[in-house]
Amino acid sequence: MTITLALSKGRIFSETLPLLKTANIEVLEDPETSRKLIIPTSNPDLRIIMVRATDVPTYVRYGAADIGIAGKDVLIEYGLDGLYTPIDLEIAKCIIAVAAPNNFDYAKRIEQGRITVATKYVKTAQEHFTHKGVHADIIKLYGSMELAPLVGLADVIVDLVSTGNTLKANNLKMIEKICEISSKLIVNKASYKTKLKDIQSIINIFQKAK
Ligand code: ATP
Ligand code: PRP
After folding, report:
1. Which ligand is nearest to the CA of 88?
2. 12-63, pLDDT tens digit by residue?
3. Which residue in 61, 107, 160, 204 has the fewest CB atoms around it within 10 Å?
């Protein structure tokens, strides 16, 4: 039975390749240069579909893909309905954090009880500030979050931090860590039952490789 694996371009794809290679599975086209969205592998029973990182859980939830690899940031934000998460692959590691301009007085703003936050992680940010007892006005963005506090769109951002280079280059500092992030293997619950043997063998490959 063919298994469909949903991946996103960039770091998740490139960090997944070596894991597949441990089982001698080669991906037969490079998604960075090919315009193809369905990519065969050297294993005739495994094909890859290329989707946006935030769309990976959606394809898997509806069964359009049997399995996928998605960041914990995306899974926290959009939920785990209909999904199993058998393995933390420990790839694409970073943290999700609150960050602000170097000279921003966060403690004072928290004391005042109201803050404006730019982020693509609306639910995560809302929950974080609710937990602190602070009213957060959330502004949803789709990228370049670091710009928002520099041009007066928001006081702080909630975004991913890895090396810290992006924050540093924009005179921002990390203020509060919210959660450690890595990518997980996600599995459609129905596929897991109907294609148990094939999916379990892919799970075993990832389990051994990590
Ligand atoms: P989209 O295309 O949907 O906007 P994206 O641009 O966030 O997604 P990527 O940048 O490839 O896509 O990020 C995919 C995943 O990799 C994220 O969900 C996160 O878990 C992780 N990630 C993002 N940025 C970093 C980083 N700087 N270092 C390590 N891991 C990261
Ligand atoms: C991510 C994230 C930060 C940056 C942090 O962006 O949104 O901007 O990485 O990494 P750093 O701490 O190592 O600088 P990404 O590189 O994925 O760019 P994109 O969201 O525009 O694709």
Report:
1. 1
2. 999 999 999 999 999 999 999 999 999 999 999 999 999 999 999 999 999 9
3. 107
pTM of the model: 0.96
pLDDT tens digits along 151-203: 999 999 999 999 999 999 999 999 999 999 999 999 999 999 999 999 999 99
88 and 100 assigned to the same domain: no
Task: Output the domain CATH number for residue 113.
Answer: 3.40.190.10
Centre of ligand 1 to C-alpha 76, Å, is: 14
Please name the residues in contact with 32: beta carbons below 8 A apart, sequence gap of 6 or more: 9, 13
Number of folded domains in the chain? 2
The domain in which residue 62 lies consists of: 3-92+182-209
User: Which residue has the least CA distance to atom 19 on ligand 2?
Assistant: 143
Closest to 145 measured CA to CA, from 86, 100, 190: 100
- Taking alpha carbons only, the member of 34, 48, 33, 35 closest to residue 2 is 48
